[in-house]
TrEMBL record:
Pfam entry (one): HCS_D2
Family membership: Belongs to the alpha-IPM synthase/homocitrate synthase family.
Organism annotation: Orenia metallireducens
Ranges where the Pyruvate carboxyltransferase domain occurs: 4-255
Any GO BP: carboxylic acid metabolic process
Keyword vocabulary terms for this entry: Transferase
Domain of life (superkingdom): Bacteria
Gene3D superfamilies given in the database record: 1.10.238.260, Aldolase class I
InterPro entries attached to this UniProt entry: AIPM/Hcit_synth_CS, Aldolase_TIM, LeuA/HCS_post-cat, NifV/FrbC, PYR_CT
GO molecular function annotation: acyltransferase activity, acyl groups converted into alkyl on transfer
NCBIfam families hit by this protein: nifV_homocitr
The protein's name: Homocitrate synthase NifV
UniProt cross-references to PROSITE patterns, sorted A to Z: AIPM_HOMOCIT_SYNTH_1, AIPM_HOMOCIT_SYNTH_2, PYR_CT
Length: 359
C-alpha cells in the first residue's frame, strides 16, 4: 500500500524546458518506463497543442498502462474538447490563482475566475471525466482566496487539487504552513507541484508531504522550465529513506530512467546529481573509505545495492592506507602496510598534478 503517490510531469512540464522536444518514440518510451517503475500518474501532455501532440497522446492512451494518464488543460472548454478527442478520461484544469496572474496575464478578477472554473469543471464532469484542478502560482495567491478556489473545485466534483509553486518562491517552512491550512480546509487530496529556482523543490515537496499532500508532482532529473522541477528520483528516495514511507516503486530502475530522459532531452546531468549521478557512490577520502570498508552505513545513507548501483573507491590525493590495501586486493595483490604507505606517498606526490590516479 503506497503512502504517497508520484505524479510525473516529465512529458508535459519537463518538455516545456527551453530547447527540449521529445520525439514520438521518446515520449512513448518514457511513458512506458515510468509505468514500468510504478509511477501512479503520468501527466502525458497538452492536447490543445495540436495534431502531432494529439497523435502521440492517443497512442500513449492506447497502451493501456497501469498509471493514470492525465491531460493538462487551460481553463477553457475548447481545451477539454481536445482532450476528449484524444480519449482522455482524466482531466487536469489549470486555473491562474494569484492576483498577479489574473491582473497582468488575463486582465480578469477573482469573481470571473471562480465562475469560469465552475463552468469548465461542470463541462468535463458531464462528459464523464475525472477532474483535478490546479492553482497556478498558488504560492503567491492570497491563501483565503486559494482555499475558496479549492472549495469551488470540491463542490463541483473535482477529486484532487494541485498547489503549484510556479515560480519556485517557497521555502520548506512556508510550504508546510500553506499545505496544512489547505488540508484543514478541504476534503480533497492535494498534489504539490514545485519548481527549483532556489534549489528547494525537493525540500518543499517533502514539507508538503509532511503537511498532508499525498501526491507529488515531479519530473525525471528535475527537468523543467528555468531551474527545473522537483526531481522524481530525489523525492522518491527521500520519502522512502528519510520518511520511511511504504511504496512499490521499483527504485533499481531509477538510473536507467534517468539515462533515458537525459538522452531524450539532451540535458546532461552532473556527476554528483543526487541518486542518479555517476559519482554519487564514489569515495576517495581515506577516512571515509576506511569506515565504509568496516561498515558501509558509516558514510552511506543511500545503499548503492538498493538502487542497482555499485560503490566505487577512487585513489587520489585524499586516499589512505586502507584504500591502497583494498585496491591492490581487488587486483589480487597482497601488500604489507609499509608497502601500502610507500605506494600512497608516491600517489600523493603525483596526484597534485591530476584529478585522480586510479578509478
Amino acid at each position: 500500500m503506497n503512502s504517497f503517490y508520484i505524479l510525473d510531469t516529465t512529458l508535459r512540464d519537463g518538455e516545456q524546458s527551453a530547447g527540449v522536444s521529445f520525439s514520438k518514440k521518446e515520449k512513448i518510451d518514457i511513458a512506458c518506463k515510468l509505468d514500468e517503475l510504478g509511477v501512479d500518474v503520468i501527466e502525458a501532455g497538452i492536447p490543445a497543442m495540436g495534431t502531432e501532440e494529439k497523435e502521440v497522446l492517443k497512442e500513449i492512451i492506447s497502451l493501456d498502462l497501469n498509471a493514470e494518464i492525465l491531460a493538462w488543460n487551460r481553463m477553457k472548454i475548447e481545451d477539454i474538447d481536445q482532450s476528449l478527442d484524444c480519449g482522455f478520461k482524466n482531466i487536469h484544469i489549470s486555473a491562474p490563482a494569484s492576483d498577479i496572474q489574473l491582473k497582468h496575464k488575463l486582465k480578469k478578477d477573482r469573481g470571473w475566475l471562480l465562475a469560469e472554473l465552475t463552468k469548465v469543471i461542470n463541462y468535463a464532469i458531464k462528459k464523464g471525466c475525472m477532474v483535478s484542478v490546479g492553482a497556478e502560482d498558488a504560492s503567491r495567491a492570497d491563501i483565503d482566496f486559494l482555499i475558496q478556489l479549492y472549495k469551488v473545485a470540491q463542490k463541483e466534483g473535482a477529486v484532487r487539487v494541485r498547489y503549484a509553486d510556479t515560480i519556485g518562491a517557497l521555502d520548506p517552512l512556508a510550504t508546510y504552513d500553506n499545505i496544512k491550512k489547505i488540508r484543514e480546509a478541504i476534503d480533497l487530496e492535494v498534489d504539490f507541484h514545485g519548481h527549483n529556482d532556489f534549489g528547494m523543490a525537493t525540500a518543499n515537496a517533502l514539507s508538503a508531504f509532511k503537511a498532508g499532500a499525498k501526491y507529488i508532482s515531479c519530473t525525471v532529473n528535475g527537468l523543467g522550465e528555468r531551474a527545473g522541477n522537483t526531481a522524481l528520483e530525489e523525492i522518491v528516495m527521500s520519502l522512502k529513506c528519510i520518511e520511511g514511507c511504504e511504496s512499490d516503486f521499483k527504485i533499481k530502475g531509477l538510473k536507467e530512467l534517468s539515462k533515458l530522459v537525459e538522452d531524450s532531452s539532451g540535458r546532461r546531468i552532473s556527476i554528483d546529481k543526487p541518486v542518479v549521478g555517476d559519482g554519487v557512490f564514489s569515495h576517495e577520502s581515506g577516512i571515509h573509505v576506511d569506515g565504509l570498508l568496516k561498515n558501509p552505513s558509516t558514510y552511506e545513507f543511500l545503499s548503492p545495492g538498493d538502487l542497482g548501483r555499485e560503490r566505487k573507491f577512487v585513489i587520489g590525493k585524499f586516499s589512505g592506507v586502507s584504500s591502497i590495501l583494498h585496491k591492490y586486493k581487488e587486483l589480487g595483490i597482497s601488500l604489507s602496510e609499509d608497502e601500502a604507505n610507500k605506494v600512497l606517498r608516491g600517489i600523493k606526490s603525483y596526484s597534485g598534478n591530476v584529478e585522480s590516479v586510479i578509478g
